């Protein structure tokens, strides 16, 4: 299994503090030594740092920890391989372009006997169940909305439906972003916190490091952090609801009720 | 205009020396201050480092210069913006997946009145003529070879034909790789060198830096370096032929004569 870390904000924010605790789990305080990666959206562009070495030993991780990249949406992943060998092409997050936007995806879980039909529009480069699911998701989205990005509600419904179909094959915690919203899906373990004024002094579990967010933020800042296991030992983390996709936008979950959506391509 | 740097090798090789001279042109010895990027293939995986800050000031460029990433195929680019604002989404190289392989593309030049028809299978995220041409190239390739990657000769012919169609719109020096071969196309300026035993002592033009390649190689190593302007002042660089695509494989250009290829999708 792996661990996921995501951030969604209303103003571009750096993830140095949370990433410091998270990357320690890539071989120091935990056993996720089989590679790591992090993606930052900056406008419509995305920066993706991937390394198949343990994050605790990676000079690239040290750079990410110390070089503040401000972003509205970040997805990071540390890997403990289940399917697919330890190699760069099997390192999360994965990236593809759909509708002229980059999409970033990372998965924690294990899908078994998962053999979706692919039409060639998105094909996995590596051997993971995760990249396979990501390709199938994008194929479904393009098929359903051939004219381009639909309104956020319709997009949310389609991703929720895909998640429901796919979690039948196993554990399927994932983070997904198009740079605008961050979609989070939990089947086993995924927590979140909203940090906003009055900002806390937070202390990492995995390193003896404290940050007073009130010193590095403005009163209107709002940041959602989503992570497999809570990162701090003096804040209240909330478990994400199971069995539905949560969309984070501007640093908070968006209220949404699934409505009956049109049948999927496969069910038609 | 911009500058391009590519490397194609028969054994995984680091590009620290060449990149040191190249990145100095991103604001120190030359004026290409509008962002830079570099992509390394490692197996089927690719690492892409992008920065819209000048490479001479970038902590990321410093990391790439000092952290030897060994790769068979590398493409780097420093930008002086012609079309598209200075932003991450307009920073080369660009990356897409086709046939379950990553493709990396960087362009030096300027295409005017270039408005190819896109069917939506690959769409630009930014506003550059370069990313537009890359999307159209991949669309053409997928249309022509829907069953997957064709033999290298057929692939070479199709890319050569695309280059011929596209250079009618302006200067179109580009580097393209799928991790196996590196394709280079010159309309105005592009040079290459093959380094192999007996290896030279090379001295950079842009920094006072010398490397004795015989100390860091084995006798069977062969490395092709392709660059807009020669990087060293004591080696003989060759201009690439104009008006045809050269394919580099295992550190050398592959002999190839264009044969009459089937008509393109557009001409049918």
Q: What does the secondary structure layout of this molecule look like, with pairings?
A:
Two copies of one chain form a homodimer.
Chain A: E1 3-13, H1 16-24, E2 36-42, E3 45-51, H2 59-66, E4 71-78, E5 94-98, E6 101-111, H3 129-144, H4 152-166, E7 170-177, E8 182-185, E9 191-196, E10 201-203, E11 210-212, E12 222-227, E13 238-239, E14 245-249, E15 252-253
Antiparallel strand pairs in A: 1-4, 1-12, 2-3, 2-4, 5-6, 6-7, 7-8, 8-14, 9-12, 9-13, 10-11, 14-15
Distance between the termini of chain A: 34 Å
Share of helix of chain A, binned: 10-25%
How many beta strands in the DSSP annotation of chain A?
15
CATH class of chain A: Alpha Beta
Shape of chain A: globular
Radius of gyration of chain A: 17 Å
Largest interface: A-B, 36 and 36 residues
User: What is the H/E order of chain A?
Assistant: EHEEHEEEHHEEEEEEEEE
Could you list the spans of chain A in which at least 5 consecutive residues all have pLDDT below 50? none
Reported by name, the CATH topology of chain A is Glutamine Phosphoribosylpyrophosphate, subunit 1, domain 1
The structure class of chain A reads alpha+beta
Overall mean confidence score, pLDDT of chain A: 90
From the 3D coordinates, which CATH architecture of chain A would you assign? 4-Layer Sandwich
* Number of domains as seen in the coordinates of chain A: 1
Beta content of chain A comes to: 25-35%
Largest sheet strand order of chain A: 3-2-4-1-12-9-13
Largest sheet of chain A: 7 strands, antiparallel
Assembly annotation = homodimer
What is the CATH homologous superfamily assignment of chain A?
Aminohydrolase, N-terminal nucleophile (Ntn) domain
Number of helices of chain A: 4
């Amino acid at each position: 299994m792996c661990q996921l870390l995501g951030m969604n904000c209303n103003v571009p924010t750096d993830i140095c503090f949370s990433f410091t605790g998270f990357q320690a789990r890539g071989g120091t305080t935990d056993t996720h030594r089989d590679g790591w990666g992090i993606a930052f959206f900056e406008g419509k562009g995305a920066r993706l740092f991937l390394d198949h070495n343990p994050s605790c030993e990676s000079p690239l991780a040290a750079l990410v920890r110390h070089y503040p990249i401000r972003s509205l949406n970040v997805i990071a992943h540390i890997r403990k391989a289940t399917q697919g060998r330890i190699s760069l092409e099997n390192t999360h997050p994965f990236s593809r372009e759909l509708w002229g936007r980059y999409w970033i995806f990372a998965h924690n879980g294990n899908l078994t006997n998962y053999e979706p039909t692919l039409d060639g529009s998105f094909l996995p480069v590596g051997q993971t169940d995760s990249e396979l699911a990501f390709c199938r998701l994008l194929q479904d989205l393009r098929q359903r909305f051939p004219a381009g990005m639909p309104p956020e509600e319709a997009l949310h419904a389609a991703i929720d439906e895909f998640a429901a179909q796919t979690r039948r094959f196993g554990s399927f915690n994932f983070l997904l972003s198009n740079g605008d919203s961050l979609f989070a899906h939990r089947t086993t373990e995924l927590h979140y916190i909203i940090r906003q004024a009055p900002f806390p002094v937070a202390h990492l579990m995995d390193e003896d490091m404290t940050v007073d967010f009130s010193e590095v933020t403005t009163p209107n800042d709002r940041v959602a952090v989503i992570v497999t296991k809570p990162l701090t030992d003096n804040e209240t983390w909330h478990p994400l609801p199971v069995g539905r996709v949560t969309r984070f936008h501007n640093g908070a979950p968006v209220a949404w009720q699934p409505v009956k959506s049109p049948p999927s391509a496969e069910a038609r």
